[in-house]
From TrEMBL:
This is ABC transport system ATP-binding protein. One of its GO terms (molecular function) is ATP binding. InterPro entries: AAA+_ATPase, ABC_transporter-like_ATP-bd, ABC_transporter-like_CS, ABC_transpr_LolD-like, MacB-like_ATP-bd, P-loop_NTPase. SMART domains: AAA (SM00382). The keyword Nucleotide-binding applies. CDD domains: ABC_MJ0796_LolCDE_FtsE. PROSITE patterns: ABC_TRANSPORTER_1, ABC_TRANSPORTER_2. Keywords: ATP-binding, Nucleotide-binding, Transport. Signal peptide: none annotated. It holds the Pfam family ABC_tran. The keyword NADP does not apply. Residues 11-247 form the ABC transporter domain.
Amino acid sequence: MRQHQGVPDAVRLLSVRKVHGKQRGVVALNGVTVGFGRGTFTAVMGPSGSGKSTLLHCAAGLDRPTSGSVLLGEQDLGGLSEIRLTTLRRDRIGFVFQAFNLLPALTVWQNVTLPLRLAGRKADRDTVTQVIDRVGLGDRHRHRPGELSGGQQQRVAIARALVTQPEVVFADEPTGALDTRAAREVLGLLREAKELAGQTIVMVTHDPVAAAYADRVLFLADGEVVGELLEPTADEVARRMTHLGAWADERPQDGPRLTGSVR
Ligand SMILES: Nc1ncnc2c1ncn2[C@@H]1O[C@H](COP(=O)(O)OP(=O)(O)OP(=O)(O)O)[C@@H](O)[C@H]1O
């Protein structure tokens, strides 16, 4: 576990076990202990079904572990009611999903400010403008998601995740639906959130090139953390994934999208 100079990790999982279903339960996480330091960017990788999404959902308080605990800073999520958990997620966590999850009837500005409105907070015009400018959509405030490309829509989703200035941003396959160029822009924005604002980023991905934008890659297999890589390169990540058998059953064209050096 990484804990620097008495500063607690942004998120910590302690012996987290998650069994899905009651009768013939599927063990999705089998005693995971891991910390995500403040201001770090971690990619979570592993074969299909290894527990990546379950880990993300438990860490983000979207799902409750069967046993073990999850801490956001010093707050143990275990004892919180659903209402307090919802408030905590809204105030301290940002989410980015593969499918963008924007509201089609709302403009860019309205989508980005939605978390503030839901929290009953006033949207400070300058802050919102800054966040939308930062993702490169300063001239698209009034546009609706349907008028934007996939990459632009994901950039709106990132602005929406950042507008509340959350401590942690969880991203579930944020580049899964994007082409290489749009993916690089999105990954650059996530890395910038870490570098400029000291936010903690935890991203699930299948793509070694995307993982190479992180400071650290965690490898999961069968619900357990089986390794990590610091300062990863796409080649090294792909090599480890191959050893985990991640692509063993897939055709060559489904393999890692190695698109050259990204660092
Ligand atoms: N709601 C659920 N009910 C029953 N089993 C589930 C549920 N959610 C996940 N699982 C099972 O838990 C295991 C881990 O699933 P999880 O979605 O966390 O894996 P993953 O690594 O994210 O997979 P993928 O890369 O395919 O998205 C799998 O065996 C999956 O079938």
